[in-house]
Design a protein that fits this description.
Elements lengths: L2 H18 L4 E5 L4 H12 L3 E6 L6 H17 L3 E5 L3 H10 L6 H22 L2 E3 L5 H6 L21 H11 L3 H5 L13 H5 L3 H10 L4 H7 L2 H21 L10
Parallel strand pairs: 1-2, 1-4, 2-3
Helix pairs in contact: 1-7, 2-7, 10-12
Length: 257
C-alpha cells in the first residue's frame, strides 16, 4: 500500500473514532523521533484540535531540539495544533531522590516514560481529549519495545499496524522535517543517549525481516536462512519472549461460576 493511501485511511479512522466517542482534542507526546512526528502530523490532518507536547527529562540537546523544531513546524502549518513544552526534569529528579532506596537504572528509564504518560493524561482529561499512541507494529507487537503503563498507556494507536519502514514512508509523504526522518531512532529514556539499535541489537529493517521469518515453518528456516540471519532470528525471539507480558492481557485469577 502506498503511503498516501495509508495516511488517508489512518486520518479517516481517527476522525471516525473521535466523532463516535465525542472526542474534542487529540493529545500527542512529541519526542523528536519519526513515530511521534508522523502521529502528531496525522492528528493535525484530521482538523481536530491537536495538542502536541514536548516533555524533556534530562534530554539530550539534539533530541530535544528535533522535538522543538517539529512542534514549531506543526504550529506554522496547522491552525488546529498547539505545541507545549513541559520540562519534567525537576519532577523526575525529585522522584529519583525520593526513591533512591530502590535505585535501578532500567526502572528509572521506564519511570521517565510513565511520568510523561501521566502528564499527557492530565492534559487530555482537562481538554476532553484522548491520548494518541505513537507505537509501531515492530515495537508494539514484535519485540514489545515500549514501557508498560508508559508509552504503552494510550487510548488509540493509529500506526500500531504499520512497520517502521512504512512510518518513514508516511513521514516523507507528510513532509516531516528531513532531520527527523534521518535521525537515528532512540526512545530518549537514557542519559547516555543510547539508540534503539544499541538496545535491540538490530536495525528496524532486520527486525522486520525477523518478524516475517518467525512466521515461517521451522524446516524452511533451517534450510533457507543464512547463519547470520539465524543468529538475528534467535535474538528477535529472545526479545519477544522477554517482553510478551506487555503484549498479553493482565493475568487474572478466575473462579468458575
Amino acid at each position: 500500500m502506498k503511503a498516501k493511501k495509508r495516511i488517508k485511511i489512518i486520518v479517516d479512522w481517527i476522525k471516525t473514532y473521535a466523532e463516535k466517542h465525542h472526542v474534542e482534542s487529540l493529545v500527542v507526546g512529541v519526542s523528536g523521533g519519526i513515530d511521534s512526528a508522523v502521529v502528531s502530523t496525522l492528528c493535525a490532518h484530521t482538523g481536530i484540535s491537536t495538542i502536541a507536547v514536548s516533555m524533556p527529562i534530562l534530554q539530550s540537546q539534539h533530541t530535544h531540539s528535533l522535538s522543538l523544531k517539529h512542534g514549531e513546524w506543526l504550529d506554522n502549518n496547522f491552525d488546529n495544533v498547539v505545541h507545549y513544552t513541559l520540562d519534567l526534569t525537576p519532577t523526575f529528579k525529585q522522584f529519583e531522590t525520593d526513591t533512591l532506596l530502590f535505585n535501578n537504572e532500567l526502572a528509572y528509564a521506564n519511570s521517565r516514560s510513565r511520568l510523561r504518560m501521566m502528564t499527557l493524561y492530565q492534559i487530555a482529561q482537562s481538554k476532553s481529549g484522548i491520548v494518541v499512541g505513537t507505537g509501531n507494529r515492530v515495537e508494539d507487537f514484535g519485540v514489545g519495545f515500549f514501557t508498560k503503563y508508559g508509552d504503552g498507556g494510550v487510548d488509540i494507536s493509529p500506526i500500531a499496524d504499520c512497520l517502521k519502514t512504512e512510518v518513514w514512508d508516511m513521514g516523507r509523504e507528510l513532509g516531516v522535517l528531513c532531520e527527523i526522518i534521518e535521525a537515528e531512532p532512540t526512545d530518549g529514556l537514557w542519559a547516555d543517549g543510547r539508540t534503539d539499535q544499541d538496545q535491540l541489537g538490530m536495525t528496524y529493517a532486520d527486525l522486520e525481516r525477523m518478524m516475517a521469518l518467525d512466521q515461517q515453518p521451522k524446516r524452511k528456516i533451517r534450510k533457507s536462512v543464512s547463519e547470520s540471519d539465524q543468529v538475528k532470528l534467535q535474538r528477535y525471539r529472545q526479545l519477544r519472549r522477554r517482553n510478551l507480558h506487555k503484549m498479553r492481557p493482565i493475568p487474572v485469577c478466575r473462579f468458575d461460576k
